[in-house]
């Protein structure tokens, strides 16, 4: 893993130089701020967290995650990064992990830019900041699982339009799975519904009520992320061979 840091720095630099990155972040912040200001009304009901604000994050990530994902692999020919990487003894695992960490860093910075909302909430009422911190952590883990899905999809094809459509479609399917399960609740065997529920990142995210972290839910997000990154590494090794 000697070249993990250089890969991370190169990918992060690409993000910082890409106008699409700033556009996606701006859209995420604009919508999250609008929803966050509406959430402030919850303080009148003695709310101690930002649950209604964070419950929109799975949908807001549909604007941010695909835009970050398609920059992981599809732009390497234009930027010359692929030629540089060919000169270095870099492994597929280093590429995948380094690129993923760079994308996750952008997401973390985006979440950090919503911090003024936390300051405003503290000024307007009494809140439990430990709960809010837990909600940020869970949101970051959800973003990691979404990014790992996008990373895997983009490794399958370097066609920008195709990967954009596939990634967004898959994330939309995952996000809308809860509605499908509600419709199947009385139509399908209970074991099918429970199995699908256990596999859905969005439903797991919703189970974490008011920032109460459950170890098995955290391990689920971490395991899903690691599994998809491992699958991405296998795809890249197969293409190299």
Quick tags:
241 residues; mainly alpha; 14 helices; 0% strand; globular
Helix and strand topology:
Blueprint: H1 4-17, H2 19-39, H3 51-54, H4 57-69, H5 76-79, H6 81-86, H7 92-112, H8 115-124, H9 129-156, H10 160-175, H11 177-184, H12 190-199, H13 201-207, H14 215-240
Helix pairs in contact: 1-7, 2-4, 4-9, 4-10, 7-9, 7-14, 9-10, 9-14
What would you say this structure looks like, in words?
The protein is an all-alpha fold and 241 residues long. It has one domain. Helix content is 78%, strand content 0%. It is built from 14 helices and no strands. The chain has helices at residues 4-17, 19-39, 51-54, 57-69, 76-79, 81-86, 92-112, 115-124, 129-156, 160-175, 177-184, 190-199, 201-207, 215-240. The two termini are 21 Å apart. The mean pLDDT is 75.
- The sequence of SSEs as H and E is HHHHHHHHHHHHHH
Number of strand elements: 0
Overall shape: globular
The percentage helix is over 70%
| Contiguous helical run count | 14
Mean pLDDT: 75
Radius of gyration: 19 Å
Task: Provide a short characterization of the protein structure.
This protein has 14 helices and no strands. It has 241 residues and is mainly alpha-helical. Helix 4 runs parallel beside helix 9 and helix 4 packs antiparallel against helix 10.
């Amino acid at each position: 893993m000697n070249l993990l840091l250089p890969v991370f720095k190169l990918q992060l630099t690409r993000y910082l130089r890409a106008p699409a990155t700033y556009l996606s972040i701006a859209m995420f912040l604009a919508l999250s701020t609008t929803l966050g200001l509406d959430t402030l009304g919850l303080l009148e009901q003695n709310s101690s967290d930002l649950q209604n604000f964070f419950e929109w994050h799975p949908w807001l990530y549909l604007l941010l995650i695909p835009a970050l994902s398609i920059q992981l692999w599809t732009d390497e020919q234009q930027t010359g990064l692929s030629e540089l990487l060919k000169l270095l003894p870099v492994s597929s695992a280093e590429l995948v992990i380094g690129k993923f960490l760079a994308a996750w860093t952008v997401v973390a910075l985006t979440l950090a830019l919503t911090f003024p909302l936390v300051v405003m909430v503290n000024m307007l009422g009494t809140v439990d900041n430990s709960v809010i911190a837990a909600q940020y952590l869970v949101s970051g883990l959800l973003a990691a699982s979404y990014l790992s899905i996008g990373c895997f999809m983009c490794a399958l094809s370097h066609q920008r339009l195709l990967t954009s459509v596939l990634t967004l479609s898959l994330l939309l399917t995952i996000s809308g799975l809860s509605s499908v399960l509600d419709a199947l609740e009385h139509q399908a065997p209970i074991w099918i519904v429970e199995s699908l529920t256990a596999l859905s990142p969005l439903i797991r995210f919703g189970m974490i009520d008011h920032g109460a972290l459950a170890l098995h839910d955290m391990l689920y997000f971490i395991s899903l992320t690691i599994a998809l990154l491992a699958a991405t590494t296998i795809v890249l090794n197969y293409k190299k061979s």
